[in-house]
Amino acid sequence: MNIVAVAACPTGIAHTYMAQAAIEKECKKRGIDVKVETQGSMGIENELEQDEIENADVVIFAVAIAVEDEDRFDEKKDEGKVLYVEPGELLKKPEKYIDEAVALILKK
Fold first, then answer.
1. Measured CA distances, 66 to 39, 47, 62, 91, 104 (Å)
2. Overall average pLDDT of the 54-64 stretch
């Protein structure tokens, strides 16, 4: 399995990086390949390449603001392979949202 994610909050500081860490930790625990792009006060960091997005099984948007260049993910949206979650909610129950992402992957 391969997940990509975008984490972003209004200030782009605490919740952005905490959401990134929570996604990475939960995926590592399950043996899921993951890469998380962050967007915030420092701009875009760890930017996802288009081929990484295309090769991903699912995209998680742990965001509380609009995502820059969100049209990069249109194909995944059309496939129903995008999960949206507030960063604060993801921090409370990362396992729940990784479960939901895996369910999207398994959904035909």
1. 10, 16, 11, 19, 22
2. 97
